[in-house]
């Protein structure tokens, strides 16, 4: 890829790496045999909890503005606010109606102002642009900006320098900044690595735009991967993706949740968007040496726990109630479940909170996520549910209901209903 192919010269990624070096972590490339020889780029360990800090740092440092506006699903806003606080920059983050409340709270806790707008990501980005123009603040988009793309590319630079023999890299795709950045990094290093973008099934704007030969806007999505709900391909990004990406694949919510569970078991507390690349790698199961970018770890639970740490209370605020997942009796497989002992299940769930944690009021989601690979009891619950239900629903249930009492209630009610009607 040459500079003539795209607006951004591949060398901009190296310049970004030098500019942001003192603000970012060089994150490890972990070996986790979720697939033979698979490597995991651990960006959940990045400052601010996601790779978004890289592009945000490159833009903030290069622009030198004293006020910025950023449209974000959350992680970009958290990154900009984290940096803004240190650099003395006033930060306003524009978030779409359905964006995570815990991410909004994190931006506010870092001193950022948050404006919520109705609609999806496209409406959000239009509003952010208008607001920046109206107030004279610098616009720092979450992906479609030369400096942001170059900053995100430092993820690829580190990966390809740490493992030059990689055959394939799987990258989650939201706005596409990370994907385009990894492409530029590969071009800069002259690497022929296969680059595969992973989009949520409901938001395949890059795949559709490439096949249509023009930018296609898709409707707002409610993918469980809240960072991957982009609607339009970026103007800066699309030519890079067209030129260099080898393949774009789609993954559904169940596959993302399954990948997230596997990562958690392996001690990597990814958020859903951060697990999408693994879902893609599991789907293709390529021969050779692959790496996935675990792009973030800002789950509701992780943010809530960080919030509690900030306040010094040691207690976690309850995670906001997430949209209901499919109930067991809505599933064909759920109907064909084994006979169950509801008392045993209720005992397992409530006993876990009382006996293992010494508290029956803690937030179920927080505990599950925060425990990472260590909490055998949490996984026992999932396993027991998986014997009764189909796997995705079991996992979704544990992630959805914010208290053990609610979780037990819904499982018992729904299983009883399903057994009675079977
Ligand atoms: C954790 C996480 N992964 C991936 C993405 C997608 O990144 P991009 O917008 O650069 O495609 C996001 C976007 O918010 C994210 O928060």
Core attributes:
globular; 6-stranded mixed sheet; disordered C terminus; binds pyridoxal-5'-phosphate; single chain; Rossmann fold; 11% strand; 3 domains; alpha/beta
Any idea of the CATH topology of the largest domain? Rossmann fold
Strand content: 5-15%
Helix content: 40-55%
CATH class of the largest domain: Alpha Beta
Number of domains: 3
Explain the overall architecture.
- It is a single chain.
- The chain has 422 residues and is of the alpha/beta class.
- It folds into three domains: 3-47 and 145-294, Rossmann fold, CATH 3.40.50; 52-139, Rossmann fold, CATH 3.40.50.1100; 325-421, no CATH class.
- The protein is built from 18 helices and ten strands.
- The protein has helices at residues 11-20, 52-63, 75-87, 101-109, 121-135, 146-162, 177-189, 205-212, 237-244, 253-265, 272-284, 300-311, 332-335, 342-356, 364-371, 376-388, 391-400, 404-421, and strands at residues 29-31, 39-42, 67-71, 90-96, 113-117, 138-139, 168-172, 194-200, 247-251, 290-294.
- The protein has a six-stranded mixed β-sheet, sandwiched between helices.
- The radius of gyration is 21 Å and the shape is globular.
- The chain binds pyridoxal-5'-phosphate (PLP).
- Residues 309-336 are annotated as: Disordered.
- This is Carrier domain-containing protein.
- It comes from Streptomyces asoensis.
- Keywords: Lyase, Phosphopantetheine, Phosphoprotein, Pyridoxal phosphate.
- It holds the Pfam family PP-binding.
């Amino acid at each position: 890829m040459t500079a003539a192919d795209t607006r951004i010269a591949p060398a901009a990624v190296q310049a970004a790496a030098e500019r942001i070096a003192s603000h970012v972590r060089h994150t490890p490339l972990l070996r986790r045999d979720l697939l033979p020889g698979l490597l995991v780029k651990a960006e959940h360990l990045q400052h601010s909890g996601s790779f978004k800090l890289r592009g945000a740092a490159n833009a903030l440092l290069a622009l030198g503005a004293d006020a910025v506006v950023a449209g974000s699903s959350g992680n970009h806003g958290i990154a900009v606010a984290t940096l803004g606080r240190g650099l003395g920059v006033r930060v306003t983050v524009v978030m779409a109606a359905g964006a995570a409340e815990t991410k909004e709270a994190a931006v506010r806790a870092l001193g950022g102002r948050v404006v919520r707008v109705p609609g999806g990501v496209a409406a959000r980005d239009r509003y952010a642009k208008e607001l920046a123009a109206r107030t004279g603040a610098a616009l720092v988009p979450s992906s479609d900006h030369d400096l942001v793309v170059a900053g995100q590319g430092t993820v690829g630079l580190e990966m390809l320098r740490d493992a030059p023999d990689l055959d394939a890299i799987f990258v989650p795709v939201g706005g596409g900044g990370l994907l385009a950045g990894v492409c530029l990094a590969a071009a800069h290093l002259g690497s022929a690595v296969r680059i595969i973008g992973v989009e949520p099934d409901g938001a395949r704007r890059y795949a559709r735009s490439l096949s249509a030969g023009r930018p296609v806007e898709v409707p707002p999505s409610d993918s469980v991967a809240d960072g991957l709900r982009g609607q339009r391909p970026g103007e800066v990004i699309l030519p890079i993706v067209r030129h260099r990406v080898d393949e774009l694949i789609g993954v559904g919510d169940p596959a993302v949740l399954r990948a997230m569970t596997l990562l958690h078991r392996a001690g990597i507390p990814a958020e859903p968007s951060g697990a999408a690349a693994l879902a893609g790698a599991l789907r293709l199961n390529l021969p050779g040496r692959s790496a996935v970018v675990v792009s973030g770890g800002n789950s509701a639970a992780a943010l809530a726990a960080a919030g509690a740490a900030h306040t010094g209370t040691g207690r976690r605020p309850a995670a906001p109630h997430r949209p209901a997942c499919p109930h067991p009796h809505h599933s064909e497989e759920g109907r064909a479940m084994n006979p169950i002992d509801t008392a045993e299940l209720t005992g397992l769930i409530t006993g876990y909170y009382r006996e293992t944690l010494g508290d029956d009021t803690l937030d179920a989601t927080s505990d599950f996520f925060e425990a990472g690979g260590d909490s055998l009891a949490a996984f026992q619950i999932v396993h027991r549910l998986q014997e009764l239900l189909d796997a995705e629903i079991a996992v979704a249930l544990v992630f959805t209901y914010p208290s053990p009492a609610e979780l037990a209630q819904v499982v018992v009610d729904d299983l009883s209903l399903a057994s009675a009607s079977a």
